[in-house]
Specification:
The protein is elongated and about 65 Å long. The protein is an alpha+beta fold. The chain has a three-stranded mixed beta sheet with strand order 6-5-7, covered by helices on one side.
Length: 162
């Protein structure tokens, strides 16, 4: 479903090699009766040498400009290889889901609330958390209100009853 093309480019000649690889993949797809959606091509470049960060051109003439962040398998990563955008989006999504749970369900006993939290809220927060959080954050959950705390050694969930 998704295809990736990556190359370590450390010299201007590497940019040309990557461009040739891109053409080769597109030609291979065409020879195998596959169609690649050029509108969905994404380019993520990172590094400190500005001469190596250039747009690449598809055979159709469309230029693939570098993106600040890309989404891959539901995880956002930026050009600095950090997951800040992913964490922010998932935190906002979990907060919205927590609000939905509180508006939709009137039962407030502890076991039901924990079940709803685990099914609807924690599943969002924990998606790829081993990759994205790397044990640097703590989420305090107070009646499903999520607040992020930095610089702790491991990810913990504290459920506080009010």
């Amino acid at each position: 479903d998704d295809s990736k093309l990556q190359k370590n480019v450390s010299a201007p000649s590497g940019c040309q090699l990557l461009q040739e690889d891109l053409y080769a993949v597109i030609e291979w797809a065409s020879c195998n009766n596959m169609e690649l959606n050029e509108a969905k091509f994404q380019l993520l470049q990172h590094g400190k040498i500005p001469d190596l960060q250039k747009p690449y051109v598809l055979p159709s003439g469309i230029s693939i400009a570098a993106d600040d962040a890309v989404k891959d398998l539901g995880v956002y990563i930026d050009k600095e290889l950090r997951w800040r955008q992913h964490i922010a989006k998932k935190s906002a999504e979990a907060s919205k889901k927590a609000g939905w749970v509180l508006r939709t369900f009137s039962i407030r006993d502890k076991s039901t609330m924990m079940l709803l939290y685990k099914v609807y809220v924690r599943s969002i927060i924990e998606y790829c958390c081993a990759l994205t959080l790397c044990g640097l954050l703590t989420y305090n959950v107070t009646s499903f209100g999520l607040k992020r705390s930095n610089a702790l050694s491991r990810l913990r969930y504290q459920v506080v009853q009010e």
